[in-house]
Amino acid sequence: MSQVQDAIQKKCPCGSGKPFQFCCEPIVTGQKSAPTAEALMRSRYTAFAMGAIDYLINTTAPEKRGEDDAEILADQVKYTNWTGLKIIDKAQGGRDDQEGMVEFEAEFETDDQTGTLYEKSNFRRENEHWVYVDGDVELRTS
Ligand SMILES: [Zn+2]
To answer: How many whole angstroms from 111 Cα to the centroid of ligand 1?
Structure first.
């Protein structure tokens, strides 16, 4: 298989089933902004999987950013391997909405455990760009 075909067929980490280059890649690399809250959520999952820390900070609501975010995120992406994303439900978050909610489950593994992060995330539009505000998180490990 040629490298070009390889790139085209590489599926996006977010589990959409779409090729990476037509799904989260242009969003995480800043070529386009996420059109919906779900697209932003998926792109943030992909950024976690790839270790795109700047993108994660830039897509967090300004008042929710902390001074230590870069360090905390660097640790998280170093020790956590994200292995799957499932969108459970969503509300609003569409092209004409200002706020949105996405409910999801993300599978992960670390050196010594596997687990599921369940979260209901809240998003809002900030200067025409979707940002992550906060969420109800439940962590299940085994
Ligand atoms: Zn994607």
So the answer is: 25
